[in-house]
Amino acid sequence: MTTELLAPLDLAFWHLESPDHPMHLGALAVFTAVPGTTPGEGVPELLATRAAAVPRLRMRVRDVLLPVGGAAWAVDKDFDVHRHVRVLPLPPGDFAAQAELLAGELMERPLERGVPPWEMYVLTPADGGRERGGSGPAASTGPGASHAGGPPAGADRRFAVLVKMHHALADGMRAVAIGAGIFDQIADVRAAGARRARPVPPRSWLPGPWQAAGLARDRLEDLRRALGIGASVVRASRFDPRGVAALTAGSSGTRRLATAVLDLADVQLVRKAAGGSANDVLLATVAGALRRWMLERGEPLPAAAPRALVPVSRRRPGSPAGSANKLSAYLLGLPVAEGDARARLRAVRGAMDRNKSEGPARGAGAVALLADALPPLAHRLGAPLAGNAARVLFDILVTSVPLPRSSLSLGGCPLRALYPMAPLARGQSLAIALSSYGGQVYVGLVADGKAVPDLARLARGMNEELDELLRIAP
């Protein structure tokens, strides 16, 4: 892979990062060890081999002279995959709780710059998977599963892999495309169909005379679209500091992770009864969970609905994994003041229908598209101002990350759960990410540890709200 400039949105994510607000995505994948092996045995070596074979994971960011303020992806000539893949035994205690706690702490740490911006951690049980008075694999499947049923009678056969990728390297869909290369099924297909890459001639960053007119027309169209989005952003901005206290608290730089598992069949049942999409049901579930959480902690319900940023991928099916971030978003008021679950779902469905009718390239939620209209130097110098702008537009990030539908494994160890994790923008205390796999919806909640110390209560509210919505389904 040759040197290539960072796309404008990638450059924006690279410069938005600060020590208290690392801009990396994450995923906590839970596996069951093959019988007769120690949980995690051979996994670090396997991960290192497969990650090193993904060209994108060998690229680092370096500054360039032109364009001024720009940066480029370049192959790291000193690449050492063992700097990126590490093993961490969990402390004694419940596997689920310890995995969530450690994953939250690891998400606090910004990725090292100057090297390819990604890391993988293999989290193994404290007892090494030794028997504890029984036999057979654990029945629970994810970090949160053992909370309800207690630890398994026999050995805890689970281990976990935490993956971190900088947002400049990957949006949600691209992270899946890149990260899927570690799984047996995708790695086998890639190995069977691997071909020698053709050398790509270096591209000039200066247009030829025949391209200048077309580029000028494109820039004028981009400017016209950017002015429209900019006007929408100004109209949608809220300069009243009042809101949900926990969601608008100052940053402590700490991170906490909580997880939930929803039955996809239940989500589809509600969708069929109420109409709309499965995503509408999940967004309504988030709204109801927030309401329950605020009432339990004594928070007054806000007069203005907390606003969620709902990312929308503009990536076309089949586009290469190495292409740039392709994101827009919708803004959605979460109806937490509405006491009826049916009415909350109707409100979410109506708002999302209006968003979809306008499309992802219009409205204040499309603020990410403004990155394409700004020169690289503006991203470098304006990152602090842009980072602080998130607070006036939205209160919480809610994103869905698609996963492959087929069953996945790592070294023969079946994938039992995968919890996605989204970064916190400056001025934000909570981000919720959802992924469907194996008939379940896995929910990863990431929060500022000081602002939202009771994140597990909010996670439980997801299940409670879906149960409430089920009551409206025949």
Automatic annotation (TrEMBL):
Domain O-acyltransferase WSD1 C-terminal: residue ranges: 325-469
Residue stretches of biased makeup (Low complexity): 137-152
A biological-process GO annotation: response to hypoxia
Transmembrane portions of the chain: none
Record keywords: Acyltransferase, Glycerol metabolism, Lipid biosynthesis, Lipid metabolism, Transferase
Segments forming domain O-acyltransferase WSD1-like N-terminal: 6-130, 155-281
This enzyme's EC code(s): 2.3.1.20
Any one annotated GO CC term: plasma membrane
Enzyme class: transferase
Organism, scientific name: Streptomyces liangshanensis
Location of the region described as Disordered in the Swiss-Prot/TrEMBL record: 124-152
Reaction(s) this enzyme catalyzes, per UniProt: an acyl-CoA + a 1,2-diacyl-sn-glycerol = a triacyl-sn-glycerol + CoA
InterPro entries: Acyl_transf_WS/DGAT, O-acyltransferase_WSD1-like, O-acyltransferase_WSD1_C, O-acyltransferase_WSD1_N
Statement: the UniProt record of this protein carries the keyword DNA-binding: no
Pathway: Glycerolipid metabolism; triacylglycerol biosynthesis; Lipid metabolism
Superkingdom in the source lineage: Bacteria
GO MF annotation list: diacylglycerol O-acyltransferase activity
Family: Belongs to the long-chain O-acyltransferase family.
Name assigned to this protein: Diacylglycerol O-acyltransferase
Keyword flag Cell membrane: no
